[in-house]
Amino acid sequence: MRRIALVTLVVDDYDEAIRFYTEALGFRLAEDTARPDGSRWVVVRPGAGDQGTDLLLARAKDEAQRGRVGDQTGGRVGFFLHTDDFARDHARMLAAGVTFLEEPRHEPYGSVAVFRDLYGNRWDLLQPATD
Hints:
This protein is an alpha+beta fold. The chain is 19% helix and 38% strand.
């Protein structure tokens, strides 16, 4: 079986990124390992199991990487967080201070709203429609 296991997200600071993804978005910290070069291998997981794609939170190392923080996809929605209960997760995220860029929409493909992460990357919170 093949799957995308990790997607790298360039961040300014490991600890603030961990706090945002675990506290505001409800991810869990899967790994936080110090590396010999002073960096860390930080992985957060959106669900309880191993079914989705994890995020590798990588601290920007130079000016070029710092310039990409928050704009890794050129202003487009680049990440899609699926949920099985849109209303629950939307309300919890709002209460945690997550900035939504629109009111929830109910489209033929499901319930959706665009939000920004800590750095400005755009995400969809999406509950896919059931057949």
